[in-house]
Amino acid sequence: MRVIRSLTVGAILAIALAGCKAGGDNPGLEYAPNMYHSVPYDPLTQITDEDAGRWLTSIEYSDGHAEFYNSNKLNPHAMNMRVPPPNTVKRNPQGWTPYRIPKDSLAQADRVPNPLDSTAAVIAQGKALYMVYCNHCHGPQGKGDGPVAEKYAGVANLTSDALKGITEGHIFHVITHGKGLMWAHGSQVSPEDRWKIAKFVKTLK
After folding, report:
1. How far, in whole angstroms, is CA 118 from its chain's centroid?
2. Residue 74, Ramachandran bin (φ over 0: left; ψ between -120 and 50: alpha; else beta)
């Protein structure tokens, strides 16, 4: 009896594992498929079968396609993300090109001017951003006495004589790439917000 039970369990497991086999565009058996399939256009996948996911469809689409369909009928190549023209550079909403100065080129970054004006509004926005991203380490007055500094020695005092002459480009670069104990924040803080923080930091001196 025990042998029959073991064989039965083994057969059930084998069938279940066979359903999980994936290959090519087939992900195999999916648990909670709504977590894997994007309802809106997805730039990296193209499901052109309008009946894909019909068994799961819970949304009534005006053109009648099923839930997993995410292709773009208006594009002749069914693409949702178009490849940019050769030799072009993406600009942000302010018209700025990407910041490409390498981490170890701080001297070059020193010469980069801040594209924002030193208005009261910009500095106030910079202060608000500083309190979100910088206060926990550098403290509200930039003296390197934030809560994190109580646990880890070496947080920079932004008001010290050693940092008195740094430029806004220098500050922007360090926020972007990090320096010493400070990690890079370029992926968390937008370029415009980094420049605003740099404006505020200069007012602390």
Report:
1. 28
2. alpha
The domains of the chain, with CATH numbers, are 29-84 (no CATH), 106-203 (1.10.760.10)
Residues 6+ apart with CB under 8 A from 109: 101, 169, 170, 172, 173
Amino acid symbol at 59 = I
> Tokens 């500083």 sit at which residue?
130
51-71 pLDDT per residue, tens: 888 887 777 777 788 888 887
Buried-state track 179-194, b at ≥16 Cβ within 10 A, e below 16: eeebeebbeebebbbb
DSSP character at residue 1: -
The one-letter code for the residue type at 36 is: Y
pTM across the whole model: 0.62
Express each pLDDT in 80-100 by its tens digit.
Answer: 667 778 888 888 888 899 999
Identity of residue 70: N
CA-atom Rg of the chain in angstroms: 27
126-135 LR contacts (CB < 8 Å, sep 24+): 126/196, 126/197, 126/198, 126/199, 126/200, 126/201, 127/200, 129/189, 129/193, 129/196, 129/197, 129/200, 130/197, 130/200, 130/201, 133/185, 133/188, 133/189, 133/197, 134/197, 134/201
The residue whose two tokens read 């992900």 is 27
